[in-house]
């Protein structure tokens, strides 16, 4: 008798639990809330344009002529690699030149192999980078801008 009662109770519990999983999840029906959240996200990204990524450091120097050396090297690099941005920074007592905005370390290493002949002391370093347009998503971004200009 007790076995039958336990079996009936366990079947009842199993059925009620499975019914909860079969029920459809709640759908978000208020698009206004979702739109406002997306607008907030876009505003934040426009305001704070840096993300964590990688750059390649090609120069670090201190002393009286280090700024001139850094500027000369920056010009030379910009002429050779026009598509790669350069960043000249000063953090006492060093001037540094870092190049590129790479989202992954692998991308930075690939570019490092390209420039290693000209800049043998260059190395990859973790840094905050500018947002980079991803060609894979450019088509959807163009479509989004097209639709926003219509309204």
| Rg | 28 Å
Report the CATH architecture of the domain at 51-130: 2-Layer Sandwich
Provide the CATH top-level class of the domain at 51-130.
Answer: Alpha Beta
The average pLDDT value, as a whole number, equals 79
Helix content percent band: 40-55%
Structural class given helices, strands, pairing?
alpha+beta
The fraction of residues assigned to DSSP E strands is: 15-25%
Spans of 5+ residues with little confidence (pLDDT < 50)? 21-29
User: Can you tell me the CATH topology of the domain at 51-130?
Assistant: Alpha-Beta Plaits
Give the helices and strands as they follow along the chain.
HHEHEEHEH
Largest sheet descriptor: 4 strands, antiparallel
Number of helical elements? 5
What is the fourth-level CATH superfamily of the domain at 51-130?
A: Sporulation related repeat
- The tally of strands reads 4
Distance between the termini: 71 Å
Estimate the global geometry from the Cα principal axes.
Answer: elongated
Strand order of the largest sheet: 2-3-1-4
């Amino acid at each position: 008798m007790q076995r039958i009662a336990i079996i009936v109770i366990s079947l009842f519990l199993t059925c009620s639990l499975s019914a909860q999983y079969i029920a459809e999840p709640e759908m978000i029906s208020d698009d206004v809330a979702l739109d406002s959240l997306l607008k907030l996200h876009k505003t934040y990204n426009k305001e704070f344009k840096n993300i964590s990524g990688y750059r390649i450091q090609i120069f670090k120097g201190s002393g009286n002529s280090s700024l001139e050396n850094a500027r000369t090297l920056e010009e030379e690099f910009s002429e050779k690699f026009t598509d790669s941005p350069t960043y000249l920074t000063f953090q006492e007592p060093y001037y540094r030149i870092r190049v590129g905005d790479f989202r992954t370390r692998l991308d930075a290493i690939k570019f490092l192999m390209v420039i290693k002949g000209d800049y043998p002391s260059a190395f990859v370093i973790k840094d905050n980078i500018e947002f980079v347009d991803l060609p894979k998503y450019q088509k959807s971004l163009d479509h989004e801008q097209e639709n926003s200009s219509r309204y």
